[in-house]
Amino acid sequence: MKKSHLSILVASLLVVIISSCTNDEFSGYKTADNGTFFKVHARGSDTSKAIESEIVTVNLAYRLGDSMIFNSTSLDEPMKFPMIKSMFKGDLYDAIKLMGTGDSISVAVVADSFYLVTANLSELPKYVIAGSYLYYDIKLLNHISNGEFQIELANKRLQDERLEKIILQKYLNNNDITVPPTNSGLYFIPVKQGRGSNPESGSMCQVYLSVRELDGEELFSNFGERALDIEYGLGFDTEGFMEGLGMMKPGGIAQFLVPSWIGVGSTGREMVAPFTTLVYDVKLEAIRTIEEVKKDRELYQKEKDAEKLRLEKEEPKIISNYLKSNDITIQPLQSGLFLKELISGTGDKPIDGNTVTVNYIQYDLLGNVIQSSYKDEVPFTYVVGTGAVIPGWEEAVKRMKTGGKSWMLIPSNIGWGDQERSKDIKPFSPLVFEIELMDIKK
């Protein structure tokens, strides 16, 4: 369907649904000249309104009925984005054009228009009823011109750049690091001298490394796992890392301090903020040829394939032994899920499209806790029917009621299958959980 035809359909649906809805559902709502169907919660003192091409800063949530789909207040910072031409009459951008700084409104749009036009999906998600409403809750925190925004960005970059250097110098002082930086700004701190030659362009470096920020937050580590094969000179992770690797010899261990100007830069990376200095702890295990690496990888893949076959064959016996040793006599459901109710809940069971909040504990088969939302103090919230969780978990939650608590054993065919998710979850691993259904929003 062409978008022009779709817009006409959406507008028609809007008229039909508004006329058929109860007064209570849309009490206080009205339709603006630009087609926005909205309700005002608060007005700020700013009499100017946001316009196209400006940069707006907002708190934004959207929901289907009472089921929250997204809420920007869960992010580290408010949302900031440019105002563009509306994608359909009465959309988010049309709504913000009615607002000044400090204003709070709710906006209702036909869900079809959000998913098929704004999100550009080819069809509605299965949990969305055609013609139903999606609601935006918007608070406009600020709106400025693009020129003002660029000045704001430049000032922030200067502040962040200065702050990085202050934090780096403090780290050097606190850790008694006195080695001078290289011309690029890299701090290379040898821990153990290697032997032999430094890597040359094209050399395959067998490397163990961990990466963290100066505050100690670890971002990556393969120590205790398989070494990485990195081609020297090809470019890997950051410029500073490659410079430091070139200063090492096989068997050597060193630490690199990589400032942002030879690292993540002024834009940052996924999980790493702009102007962040990184700490690399590196062991150069060996320098090998490409042919040696290829043979090693082929052997490793054969070993992994053989291990998968072994784990797949052993899983039924592992489950049987676990059930027997823990005196568990319940029978599996048709899917293979073992489910035992520990505490009965009340009310309705969740269905597709509902937003559920759960607490959970994951155990290994020896009874050790692998992960706990209770310990982390962060319950898990997701929308049922969206594929956000593994099938076995979804099936269990759909059988529960609010306040209920259940134990479950999930075989790999309704778990992670042949995927290796972590050192604790290998291919064909059965999973054991206790889950508590805290809340259901419809």
Element layout with pairings:
Blueprint: H1 3-20, E1 30-31, E2 37-42, E3 55-64, E4 67-71, E5 79-82, H2 92-96, E6 104-110, H3 111-118, E7 133-144, H4 146-174, E8 187-192, E9 204-213, E10 218-221, E11 228-231, H5 239-245, E12 253-258, E13 278-288, H6 290-325, E14 338-343, E15 355-363, E16 369-372, H7 373-376, E17 380-383, H8 391-398, E18 405-410, E19 431-441
Could you walk me through the main structural features you see in this protein, from its secondary elements to its overall organization?
Strands 1, 2, 3, 4, 5, 6 and 7 form a seven-stranded antiparallel beta sheet that branches. The chain is flat and about 80 Å long. The chain starts with a helix and ends with a strand. With 442 residues, it is α+β, with helices and mostly antiparallel strands. It has three domains: 3-144, Roll (Chitinase A, domain 3), CATH 3.10.50.40; 175-288, Chitinase A, domain 3 (Roll), CATH 3.10.50.40; 314-441, Chitinase A, domain 3. It has eight helices and 19 strands. Mean pLDDT is 91; it is low at 1-21.
Query: Measured on Cα atoms, how large is the radius of gyration?
Result: 28 Å
What summary fits the major beta sheet? Answer: 7 strands, antiparallel
Q: Which CATH architecture of the largest domain?
A: Roll
Number of domains: 3
Order of helices and strands: HEEEEEHEHEHEEEEHEEHEEEHEHEE
User: Total strand count, please?
Assistant: 19
Strand content: 25-35%
Write down the overall geometry.
flat
CA(first)-CA(last) distance: 30 Å
* Class inferred from helices and paired strands: alpha+beta
CATH class of the largest domain reads Alpha Beta
CATH topology of the largest domain: Chitinase A, domain 3
Q: What's the rounded overall pLDDT mean?
A: 91
**Helicity, in percent?**
25-40%
pLDDT under 50 segments (min length 5)?
A: 1-21
